[in-house]
């Protein structure tokens, strides 16, 4: 039976070729600052022209094409429980992950902001574990009460204590890699190459640079076949040209330079391309994670990454609003839907406001409705055979009614009609119902109170605590 699926495109074949050629020119003629002697050693071993004084390199186009061909087109993001395994590049619908590293937690009832804590983060992980819409977790809030030397290890412990899903985060110090690997393999009971419970976010530094410490950490991680989510974040108008095409060129040059580096270090290592380019607020210089320009960047970059045959994690349901209001819903739906219709394999979705600086429980819950709407929009539609229910059209005839038809009941049960859990429909009666934001926050609190992920074994928890303690003492020395 023939089916159709909605799709959205911005770039023609000629547009993609043009952008790719400009990216190759930038890599060959301008080059990239890797800012890491270790990275330059990897590149020099492949006879890439490097400048040791400037810690930069110019990458030949032939090497770019060769390394692109080495990236696996499907990437496993393993959960602590196998039922939460996600295969990017294989599933018919995108996976959805929480947004990450917000500084502040918003009290949805009072409107007050406060710095996030480890206790807050554990609650968010528990909520995300309870939500079927959330496939992958990221530290939604950055805890300010942790020792910065060991915070990543504590965050990973919290993730697997409160959730059985895959988690991702940035590894900013190469010294963290050995204890992190020990923790992950203790949780999984298997080598990371077999059960990659964790994916590392590699944020490049626009324009055309890499962070030295994060790059060194990722070079160590790819040796263990940890998936790397390469996340360039150029901003149109400040760290990238104001034009959409110029921002795409800077973004893609940084992305492909990372692909080359990591494939040279560990051929066949899993890489996920992110589409985190955004726009600067030209009044303040601030980061804007939503808006029409961001939606178009999402669309164009997702198309380019898919054309490179790279598994793609797109920016999605974030917002620059300061509360979970109409603006937040409109912005999140636009950016998320554009990425989904372009064919993104994963979409960053749940929780962040205020240019990713703020998070709230209500935003997570309302984003679930946005995600469910996106998934419904992406469903395959049959316009032939049983979907036309021609017999019912004959039987009901002119002026009849379809409410009593068996096909109506069957198709509703099969999900033909979208049923919201929070969004309101229909008449409200004689009074306005309570705020949907407060209702969402209350529902989140109930889920957090009622849900408990399968706990880690006591001996694993003890082992992890020992790793963190030993690393803390070593680092202090």
Characterization of the model:
With 477 residues, the chain is an alpha/beta fold. The protein has two domains: 69-377, Trimethylamine methyltransferase-like (TIM Barrel), CATH 3.20.20.480; 382-419, no CATH class. Helices cover 43% and strands 13% of the residues. It has helices spanning 13-30, 37-45, 61-70, 118-130, 151-162, 177-188, 212-222, 244-265, 292-307, 326-342, 361-377, 390-396, 406-413, 436-450, 458-476; strands spanning 32-33, 50-51, 56-57, 75-77, 86-88, 95-98, 104-106, 113-115, 136-138, 166-170, 198-202, 228-230, 235-236, 271-274, 278-280, 287-288, 312-314, 346-350, 352-353, 358-359. Strands 6-18-17-14-12-11-10-9 form an eight-stranded parallel β-sheet. A hairpin with a 4-residue loop joins strand 19 and strand 20. Helix 4 (118-130) packs parallel to helix 5 (151-162), helix 6 (177-188) runs antiparallel to helix 15 (458-476) and helix 11 packs across helix 14 (436-450).
Task: Please outline what is shown here.
With 477 residues, the protein is of the alpha/beta class. It is built from 15 helices and 20 strands.
In CATH terms, the superfamily of the largest domain is: Trimethylamine methyltransferase-like
Q: What is the C-level CATH assignment of the largest domain?
A: Alpha Beta
> Sheet with the most strands?
8 strands, parallel
Content of β-strand: 5-15%
Helical content (DSSP H or I, runs of 4+): 40-55%
SSE arrangement:
Layout: H1 13-30, E1 32-33, H2 37-45, E2 50-51, E3 56-57, H3 61-70, E4 75-77, E5 86-88, E6 95-98, E7 104-106, E8 113-115, H4 118-130, E9 136-138, H5 151-162, E10 166-170, H6 177-188, E11 198-202, H7 212-222, E12 228-230, E13 235-236, H8 244-265, E14 271-274, E15 278-280, E16 287-288, H9 292-307, E17 312-314, H10 326-342, E18 346-350, E19 352-353, E20 358-359, H11 361-377, H12 390-396, H13 406-413, H14 436-450, H15 458-476
Parallel strand pairs: 6-18, 7-20, 9-10, 10-11, 11-12, 12-14, 13-15, 14-17, 17-18
Antiparallel strand pairs: 1-3, 2-3, 4-5, 7-8, 15-16, 19-20
């Amino acid at each position: 039976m023939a089916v159709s699926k909605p799709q959205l495109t911005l770039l023609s074949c000629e547009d993609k070729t043009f952008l790719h050629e400009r990216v190759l020119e930038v890599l060959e003629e301008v080059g990239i600052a890797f800012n890491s002697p270790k990275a330059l050693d990897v590149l020099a071993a492949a006879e890439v022209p490097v400048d040791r004084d400037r810690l930069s390199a110019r990458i030949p186009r032939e090497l770019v094409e060769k390394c692109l061909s080495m990236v696996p087109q499907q990437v496993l993001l393993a959960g602590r429980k196998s039922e939460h395994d996600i295969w990017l590049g294989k599933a018919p619908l995108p996976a959805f992950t929480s947004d990450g590293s917000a500084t502040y937690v918003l009290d949805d009832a009072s409107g007050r902001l406060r710095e996030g804590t480890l206790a807050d983060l554990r609650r968010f992980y528990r909520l995300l574990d309870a939500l079927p819409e959330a496939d992958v977790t990221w530290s939604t809030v950055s805890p300010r009460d942790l020792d910065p030397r060991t915070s990543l290890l504590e965050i990973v412990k919290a993730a697997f204590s409160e959730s059985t899903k895959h988690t991702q985060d940035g590894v900013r110090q190469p010294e963290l890699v050995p204890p992190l690997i020990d923790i992950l393999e203790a949780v999984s009971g298997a080598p990371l190459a077999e059960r990659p419970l964790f994916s590392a976010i590699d944020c490049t530094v626009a324009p055309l640079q890499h962070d030295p410490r994060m790059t060194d950490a990722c070079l160590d991680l790819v040796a263990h076949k940890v998936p790397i989510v390469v996340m360039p974040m150029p901003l149109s108008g400040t760290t990238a040209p104001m034009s959409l095409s110029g921002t795409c060129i800077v973004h893609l040059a940084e992305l492909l330079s990372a692909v080359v580096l990591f494939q040279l270090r560990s051929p066949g290592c899993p890489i996920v391309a992110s589409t985190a380019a955004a726009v600067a607020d030209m009044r303040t210089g601030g980061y804007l994670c939503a808006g029409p320009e961001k939606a178009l960047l999402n669309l164009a970059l997702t198309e380019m990454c898919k054309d490179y045959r790279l598994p793609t994690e797109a920016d999605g349901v974030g917002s620059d609003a300061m509360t979970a209001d109409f603006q937040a819903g409109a912005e999140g739906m636009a950016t998320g839907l554009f990425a989904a219709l372009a064919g993104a394999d994963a979409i960053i979705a749940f929780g962040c406001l205020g240019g990713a600086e703020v998070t709230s429980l209500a935003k997570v819950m309302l984003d679930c409705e946005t995600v469910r709407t996106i998934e419904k929009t992406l469903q395959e539609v049959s316009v032939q055979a049983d979907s036309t229910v021609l017999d019912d059209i004959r039987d009901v005839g002119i002026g009849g009614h379809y409410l009593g038809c068996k096909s109506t009941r069957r198709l509703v049960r099969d999900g033909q009609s979208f049923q919201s859990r929070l969004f309101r429909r229909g008449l409200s009666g004689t009074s306005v119902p309570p705020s949907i934001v407060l209702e969402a926050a209350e529902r989140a609190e109930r889920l957090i109170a009622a849900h408990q992920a399968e706990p880690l074994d006591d001996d694993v928890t003890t082992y992890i605590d020992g790793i963190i303690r030993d690393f803390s003492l070593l680092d202090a020395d």
